């Protein structure tokens, strides 16, 4: 038989063992619940949150999402397919979230059980030769086992004794902090999940002088949790009495916003007395845990449209969207389906501080309403398509409908407050009657908000403990007329020599001079 020949027994011995279904499941579970996997998933969760701060999100900045579609429709379509405008509701974000949740639980529970066993275990007996330890010192005088144990307990060591030795250990807060940190992360995930199930948020636009009641029908956009119904909403209401935005008027920062303030008349419940509340950007209205945030604002000029029959077909405020946020040059659309003999569609530019450029065009030079004008740059007559049952945006007239309408006016002269524009062919008049402002609000109810805050605070404290506390052991051997001490740290990093010197001094003198870490 040659050296390369194998017997049947040898061939059987080197054949690889198949894991099987149970083995693969066990391997997958161990991989998922490992600390490395938990850290990778935590990193992926943080990385997955980044697009939420890069691209506007629905429910927070709907107008900016619409503007993104208008500016880059093809890119916006691809981003929407990847859930970039709904990052925190994306399936891939939920998958990372749930995997991290399972990984943390599978990681924390076994380690917590092992830590409890470690806490109940006594420190190990002293080695025979303490001089071989990283830290070693001969004590000054004779010392009894009982006295050495008492002095180590004073330094907050867990102590066990033998016939001629004392063993002390401390620093368990390191692993406790580590476990608390991971438990706090689990608590944070549970809090976020609770908020998603039992919370809700919605957006609404309110014009000065108008009110809002916290009902589902009153929202422009409403996103409830799976366990939320119409009766879950807090029954409060308010009226927007006034909105003020202040800007820097002079210097290189001219036009920069200084402050926003909305005065609300709030009723906390039906029939309750009204109270005045000043709503600011970082000071939300809180009604029994339901928070109302000020997130945007704009102008809502008021118009009066008289049709060709002499009837007032429209009168009221029209919210405008800022086309140039720096100067609040805005665009509005007025749809008048009740006008006779034909329906009217008006496209209007609102300029808070109107100035004329060198080429004869009109623009706004300042976001405040210093010289407000309204310029009708498109007036059309015809069917607005509002009777076909298809929903339409109040901020635009669809291009396919606009093509079928008859143009009446293209870029008229700007109107000051109180001035009228007479439409041709006896189609009526458009009067610019005044200026109001609107605010966009986000109303949220999140029962997981406070638990998330507590979890974040616990995680911060626990992380400090896990990074600063070290596990260390100290032993004392008592002999005939002499005693010696030895010590070592069970964690890498840091200098244990200085603390050990303080422990030796405490053993020599019965006090703890120089011991900087009593944990």
Give the C-alpha Rg: 36 Å
Average pLDDT, rounded to a whole number, is: 87
Strand content: 25-35%
Structural class: alpha+beta
**Spatial shape:** elongated
Terminus-to-terminus distance:
69 Å
Helix content: 25-40%
Give the quaternary arrangement of the chains: single chain
Write up this protein:
This protein has helices at residues 8-14, 20-32, 35-54, 62-71, 73-81, 91-120, 145-154, 173-198, 399-402, 449-468, 496-509; strands spanning 135-138, 158-161, 165-170, 200-207, 211-213, 221-224, 237-247, 257-267, 275-279, 285-287, 290-307, 312-317, 321-324, 329-336, 344-351, 354-356, 362-364, 373-381, 406-409, 420-423, 428-445, 472-478, 483-489. It has 519 residues and is α+β, with helices and mostly antiparallel strands. α3 runs antiparallel to α6 (91-120) and α4 packs across α5. The mean pLDDT is 87.
């Amino acid at each position: 038989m040659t050296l390369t020949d194998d017997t049947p027994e040898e061939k059987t011995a080197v054949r690889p063992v198949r894991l099987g279904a149970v083995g693969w499941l066990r391997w997958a579970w161990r991989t998922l619940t490992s600390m490395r996997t938990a850290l990778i998933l935590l990193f992926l969760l943080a990385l997955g949150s980044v697009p939420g701060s890069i691209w506007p999100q629905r429910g927070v900045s709907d107008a900016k999402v619409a503007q993104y579609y208008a500016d880059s429709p093809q890119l916006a379509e691809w981003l929407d397919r990847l859930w970039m405008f709904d990052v925190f509701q994306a399936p891939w974000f939920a998958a990372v979230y749930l995997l991290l949740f399972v990984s943390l639980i599978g990681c924390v529970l076994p380690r917590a059980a092992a830590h409890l066993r470690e806490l109940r275990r006594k420190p190990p007996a002293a080695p025979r030769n303490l001089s071989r330890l990283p830290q070693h010192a001969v004590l000054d005088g004779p010392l009894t086992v009982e006295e050495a144990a008492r002095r180590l307990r004073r330094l907050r060591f867990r102590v066990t004794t033998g016939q001629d030795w004392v063993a002390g250990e401390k620093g368990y807060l390191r692993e406790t902090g580590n476990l608390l940190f991971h438990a706090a992360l689990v608590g944070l995930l549970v809090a976020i999940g609770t908020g998603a199930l039992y919370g809700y948020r919605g957006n609404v636009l309110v014009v000065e002088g108008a009110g809002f009641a916290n009902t589902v029908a009153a929202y422009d956009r409403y996103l409830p949790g799976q366990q939320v119904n119409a009766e879950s909403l807090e029954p409060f209401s308010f009226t927007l009495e006034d909105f003020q935005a202040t800007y820097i008027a002079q210097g290189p920062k001219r036009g920069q916003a200084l402050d926003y303030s909305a005065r609300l008349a709030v009723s906390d419940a039906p029939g309750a007395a009204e109270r005045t509340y000043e709503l600011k950007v970082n000071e939300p209205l809180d009604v029994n845990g339901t928070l109302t945030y000020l997130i945007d604002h704009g102008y809502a000029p008021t118009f009066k449209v008289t049709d060709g029959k002499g009837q007032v077909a429209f009168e009221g405020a029209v919210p405008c969207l800022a086309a140039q946020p720096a100067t609040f040059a805005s665009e509005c659309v007025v749809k008048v389906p009740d006008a006779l003999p034909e329906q009217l569609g008006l496209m209007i530019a609102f300029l808070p501080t109107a100035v004329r450029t060198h080429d004869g065009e009109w623009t706004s030079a300042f976001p405040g309403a210093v010289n407000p004008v309204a310029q009708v740059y498109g007036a059309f007559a015809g069917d607005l398509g509002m009777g076909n049952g298809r929903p339409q945006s109040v901020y635009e007239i669809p291009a396919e409908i606009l093509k079928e309408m008859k143009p009446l006016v293209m870029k008229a002269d700007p109107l000051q407050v109180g001035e009228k524009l007479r439409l041709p062919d006896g189609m009526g008049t458009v009067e610019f009657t005044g200026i109001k402002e609107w605010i966009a609000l986000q109303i949220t109810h999140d029962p997981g908000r406070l638990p998330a805050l507590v979890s974040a605070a616990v995680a911060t404290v626990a992380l400090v403990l896990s990074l600063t506390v070290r596990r260390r052991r100290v032993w004392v051997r008592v002999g005939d007329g002499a005693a010696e001490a030895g010590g070592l740290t069970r964690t890498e990093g840091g200098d244990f020599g200085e603390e050990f010197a303080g422990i030796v001094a405490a053993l020599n003198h019965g006090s703890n001079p120089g011991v900087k870490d009593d944990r």
